[in-house]
Each structure stands twice: as C-alpha cells, then as structure tokens.
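As the next step, I wrote out a protein sequence along with its fold in token form, included below for the reader:
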Amino acid sequence: MNALPFFLDLVSRTDEARRGFETHPVVMDAVAKGMSLERYRRLLLELYHVVWHFNPVCAAAASRLPDEHRQIRYFLYEHMHEEMGHEQWVVNDLEAVGVAPAQSVSHAPSV
C-alpha cells in the first residue's frame, strides 16, 4: 500500500486548521514578542501531557487500523519508538525553568 495518497488526503483535510493555528493571534504574538517565563512554564506543563500521552494514543490508533492500512500502522510503531522518552525532555526543561519534576508530572492538564 502506498501511504502517500493517505498523507496527501490528511494534509489537505487539515490544512485549513493548520493555517488557522499558525495565524492565531496568540501564536502570532508569541512568535513576534516571545513569552514570559511564567507563560513558557504553563506551556511546558501542558505540553508534558501531550507528549506523555502521545505513544498510548498512537498505540490505540495502530491497534484499530485494518490490515489494508498496515503501512500506516508500521509508521506509527516506528514513530512511537522515536518519541519514547521525550516526556523526560519536557520534565528536564521544566526543571531548568524552576519547576520540580514531581510538580511537572502531577500537574493536571487544562481542558
């Protein structure tokens, strides 16, 4: 199976949302002016949960793919391997900006 048509379909279906994110006033402001240390801490605390849950979500998605999409399943497996442990990078970054590791992992994500 050639994953390219799937990828092109995915890009075309999500392009508008991606452009909306890239041009969102909050994102534009952060790019233009940077972030305060407190805002950066909040971003990293939220990012921790995204990164921590990435592999379980990918595993769930891979487990639900039918055999005709096995190449996508294999891509997810490979990508999961590459992402393994990246949540520790976020914890390390948080520690570097003054947030204790215990506080990082116990922080409840926002809705």
User: Anything to note?
Assistant: Helices lie at 4-22, 25-33, 37-64, 70-83, 86-96, 101-106.
